[in-house]
Write a structure and sequence with these properties.
479 residues; alpha+beta; Dna Ligase, domain 1; 14 helices; 30% helix; 30% strand
Length: 479
């Protein structure tokens, strides 16, 4: 059952011994929660199921940068505008969308697909678009050249991106809107409020140039080579691929990264390109290992009447963390991890990715549901310690519990005899019971009382009695 989604969210920040509100959702804002308010006061105003989490500015900055990289599909130059905005240079882009209205609609549809609340504005300058988007009366407004002064005149002075002390000083003398600031004599503004006010005004109306620092997505790691003419000689193609693979791994080393998907494209003269893919269980830049995975695919590829060029592309590039290697245990552990990854990749390329599985811990009380099989080439995550039981578990767990009969010394006492398909066997020692029940939403499954039983011959069995009907089952064995 999926956890219930909270109706309100707040982010907190520490200020000495106080916990203050750093951010809040619109639901909390409507309830009266303000930024900088103590968290105790905010909890009293917010809904009862409000979710509170510590504010992480570094994580917000990274998420905003990732959003800016995603937005480059809409405009060629996009820059983050902390803490929660994007500045997009859409000069010349309107014609590609069929007009400015359709450009705004395309951006709105794209952001709506991410389920993010948003406000949009299109204006001749970054400063005017910023003020209209954050303080304008309507969402998605479009302002053309010559209309900026009238469009911003009624907006509050916060739309000029002024410092807080300047805003306070202006409000003390009755200056509330951008129009009020524009009505002031320019010669008196610097002496009263500082020179930055004139700079902000000039940026809004285009008299001062303002540029942005757009995000630059890292170019794909790629190596390619074109032949003088089509060739169907396998030796020439494999030699080229190995040469390009060394170049590709050199670039990955320079970026301190590795690839989890290697794509080899053979451009054939008479047929569409042949694409060969090798997937890895963990990032790697080992040319020998990558070649061992892609070589069988190249040998069995259909070359047609010849190959005109070869391209290698590294997909799913991820950083490879540096490791401190020593002479003894830690070095052996690191090498064993790399060898295990190479073994998984080799098996997956030979027998198929869906045939190589790994056991992963799963949050469930019932032993048969405590572990699941996942594809070994997927990103490996360490098991959650909370999902692993602290009590001992048998090394062999049967797929289906086997019905047995049991005799106890007393109704709630230790086990004496177990009767199964192999006949009756006396119990030397029994430990238990350990009561295990299903998840609370699986109320139709009865609880179980598990016992560890040692037979006279020395074997340890894991048996349980099902509460309700009192039936006994054999569920596992220690090898």
């Amino acid at each position: 059952m999926a956890p219930r989604k909270p109706s309100a969210i707040m982010l907190s920040i520490r200020d000495g011994q106080r916990e203050l509100v750093a951010a809040r959702c619109p639901v909390c804002a409507r309830a009266g929660v303000r930024l900088g308010m103590t968290m105790a006061h905010a909890r009293a105003l917010a809904p009862p199921d409000v979710h509170v989490e510590a504010h992480d500015p570094v994580r917000d900055e990274r998420a905003l940068k990732r959003l800016a990289v995603w937005a480059t599909r809409l405009a060629p130059r996009v820059a983050p505008d902390p803490p929660d905005g994007l500045l997009m240079d859409v000069s010349g882009c309107a014609a590609m969308y069929g007009g400015e209205e359709r450009l705004i609609e395309a951006v709105r549809d794209a952001v709506h697909g991410l389920d993010l609340p948003h406000r949009l504005a299109l204006a001749p300058t970054f400063a005017s678009a910023w003020g209209l988007a954050r303080h304008g009366a309507s969402n998605g407004v479009i302002v053309h050249e010559g209309e900026v002064r009238d469009a911003l005149a009624s907006l509050p002075i916060e739309a000029l991106r002024l410092e807080n002390n300047i805003i306070v000083a202006m409000r003390d003398v009755g200056i509330e809107t951008v129009g009020d600031v524009c009505a002031l004599p320019r010669t008196t503004v610097p002496a009263r409020f500082g020179a930055s006010v004139l700079l902000r005004l000039d940026q809004v109306f285009g008299s001062a140039m303002e540029s942005i620092v757009p995000v630059r997505p890292a170019p794909p790691v790629r190596a390619e080579r074109a032949f003088d003419g089509p060739t169907d000689r396998l030796e020439a193609i494999t030699l080229t691929v190995r040469d390009l693979l060394d170049m590709l791994c050199g670039e990955l080393l320079r970026r301190q990264s590795g690839t989890r998907r290697l794509l080899v494209t053979l451009y054939r003269s008479d047929l569409p390109p042949e694409k060969l893919t090798a997937r890895l269980s963990r990032p790697s830049r080992d040319a020998a290992h990558l070649w061992s995975l892609i070589e069988p695919k190249i040998e069995s590829a259909h070359l047609g009447f010849g190959v005109e060029g070869v391209r290698l592309t590294a997909g799913s590039v991820a950083r490879i963390a540096h490791e401190q290697r020593t002479q003894w245990t830690e070095r052996a552990r690191s090498e064993a991890s790399a060898e295990l990854g190479a073994l998984i990749d080799t098996l997956a390329s030979r027998v198929g990715e869906e045939c190589v599985l790994r056991i992963s811990a799963h949050e469930s009380h019932l032993p048969e549901r405590a572990f699941v099989l996942t594809r070994a080439d997927e990103a490996h995550r360490p098991p959650d310690s909370a999902a692993l039981p602290e009590a001992p578990r048998p090394s062999r767990l049967f797929d289906r519990p086997r019905p047995i009969d049991a005799a106890l010394m007393t109704p709630e006492g230790p086990l004496m005899i177990l009767r199964g398909r192999d006949g009756s066997q006396r119990v030397r020692l029994s430990i238990g019971p350990e009561r295990i029940g299903a998840e609370w939403w699986r109320c139709d499954e009865p609880e179980r009382d598990y016992y560890r039983a040692q037979l006279e011959e020395g074997r340890w069995l894991w048996v349980y009695r099902r509460r309700g009907d009192g039936r006994w089952f054999l569920h596992g064995e220690w090898a």
